[in-house]
Amino acid sequence: MIYELISSMAILGRSKFIRCALVITILSIIIATGQSLELLGMLRPLPSVLGVLSLGGMALLWRDISSKVKGENRTLSSLLSQYFAVKVVGWLGKRQRGKLEADTLNIRQVQEETLLKRLRKNADTCYGKQYDFSSIKDCEAFRTRHPVTTYEHYRELVTRVAAGEEKVLIAEKPLILAMTSGTSGASAMLLSTKDTNTEFFLQGVAVCLDAMRRAFPASDSLQRTTKLFYSPTFRQSEAGIPIGPNSSTPASSRHMLNLYTTPAPAFQVPSERDTLYLHLLFALKDPSVGTLESNFASTVFYAFSALQERWQELVEDIKLGRVSPVLTLEPGVRASLEGQMKPDPERATQLRTHFQQGFVGIVRRLWPQLNLVLAVDSGSNQIYGEMLRERYCQGIPFYSPFYAATEGLIGVNLWPEEERRRYLLCPRSMFCEFLPEASLDQETPEKHTLLMEEVQEGHSYELVVTNASGLFRYRMGDIVKVVGFHNQCPVVEFQYRRGQMLSVRGEKVSEVMFLGALKRAISQWPGAQLVDYCCAESAIMGESCGGSDPHYQVFVELKGVRNLTEEQRYKLDQCVQEDSAVYKSFRFKGSIGPMRVQMVAEGAFKELRKQMMAFSNTSPNTFKMHRVLRRKEYADFLLGKTI
């Protein structure tokens, strides 16, 4: 087999890179199999010129590998696989970035091509025939023929797909039936296809990695990444289609697991708590970690909260070279993991010293060569990003790479070094329309949508998308603000979810507005630090909330204070009045009662998170805290935790 691989190099063209890559790969196989002397003898028949070129290329490649920062205790084969993976993705990133830049120069044409591609592919489905997709030749014909839709439009159609009926909405069988996170209402079940995943990788992951390496050159290394993600639970539809979250999982990333500090067997552990412990254990073992990565900043924040609670147990495991006996692990998984543990009292002593110095700035002390934290920290995750930067991750750059949802990739952040989180819409991912904020409650939204080239800077819109997986003119519920243009393409900031708007009298206080007011109020509460928060409208709480006038119940978890005075609590109401003239007017008239601010016990939101995930069957990879509670039992739970 090795000799056949060597012989095939001449057929692969004159690319020195390909020949050198093959030679090094072959050598890594030889070394890994322990048959070096016998197999190296097979290299002798190679033509001398090819041999010289190959050896010269090997020297150049090895010099490049040697010059990069590497993790500790790496095998040659793992270094080589990571090196070539980085090179391939780097090449793809440059290529896709070039395509994206070209697309932004002619937005109308690119968007129309994207739409017509979707319609042609699904023209032969039941749905495509109903709306005669095959006869649609341009955007205007599509918008005239097809209504703006919500999930109710698709519910029965998705049920038919789940039961096994073919060619209902899309031409192919979906990979999974993807459950939304349910932050603004009940979870919806959407289709996810191969095209969706391919677009996310090429237009999202590859482009963002290119942007990351341009902004943070040190990240182009051979250091390992600590990726905090979990194996979600899937159930099966009647037709055997998996039902669960639509996010990267260990199974879908199995070919990349050697790039991470966590060994592959750890991802077979069903418990989130035990998997997180293993993530932390193997990350702490490696002082040369290069990146901390997760889908959302909240996951990173909860990981460091757990580290603060369990660091002594983790240090003891590293000292003794074991995996904690407290963890519930299958015997085979435990044996495999413990096979990768060796007693390391020196590292344990270092870690103990770092932890005893406190947790402010702990990340830089634990991993001095860490380049960045890679996680979405916009929208509902904004407060977690801020808390991480203020406490655990002082001085570490953050990169929020994507704006994405279960529906697919929406935008990419081409400006990693900027604190402001803005995203360039991806014109070949979805066909996008924009419903002006003032028209959100119109009975005929079809008449009000705008195209990419028609939106205006400074205005806010709800996204209406046509994607690769069977949604057509679909109201996502995301409100975005156009903050600029990159060539002709809009650049947006996420504002809020429609279902996460506070409104007891039609005043409409958005998540971004409320959070701004809350942060200003907390800055006037001496010593207080925000840990988490959410709100509820009095109507869902019934008699438990007290008072007859409609009002907001606000639940906050704080550090640094034991209680709040009535004056401090009222400060939040004043701050919201300053930001919302309509709210202030209703408060002045007495139509809205004073806000009730409830301080909850430490850990209350961590427990609430578990309840929410259990109820909605949401994976830790995709969970987002609900900022406006729509279920009475969640509000009652927090009422029971008030101080």
Distance between the termini: 69 Å
β-strand percent reads: 15-25%
Q: Give the helix proportion (percent range).
A: 40-55%
Structural class: alpha/beta
- The radius of gyration is 27 Å
Q: How many strands appear in the DSSP assignment?
A: 19
Looking across the biggest beta sheet, what order are the strands in?
9-10-11-15-14-13-12
Quaternary form: single chain
Give the integer mean of the pLDDT values: 87
Low-confidence stretches: 1-43
Largest sheet: 7 strands, antiparallel
Overview in brief:
This protein is an alpha/beta fold. It has 21 helices and 19 strands.
Note down, in words, how this protein is organized:
The chain crosses the membrane at residues 17-37. Residues 517-632 form the GH3 C-terminal domain. One of its GO terms (molecular function) is acid-amino acid ligase activity. By secondary structure, the protein is of the alpha/beta class. It has helices at residues 2-7, 16-33, 36-40, 48-67, 76-103, 107-121, 126-130, 139-145, 155-162, 194-215, 272-285, 297-320, 331-338, 345-356, 362-366, 382-390, 511-522, 566-579, 581-589, 604-616, 632-639; strands at 176-179, 189-192, 225-227, 235-236, 242-245, 291-296, 372-376, 398-399, 402-405, 408-412, 423-425, 431-436, 460-466, 474-486, 489-497, 529-537, 552-559, 596-599, 628-629. The strands form four sheets. The chain has a seven-stranded antiparallel β-sheet. α5 (76-103) crosses α10 (194-215) and α12 packs across α14. The longest helix is centred in the first third of the chain and has 28 residues, at 76-103. Mean pLDDT is 87; it is low at 1-43.
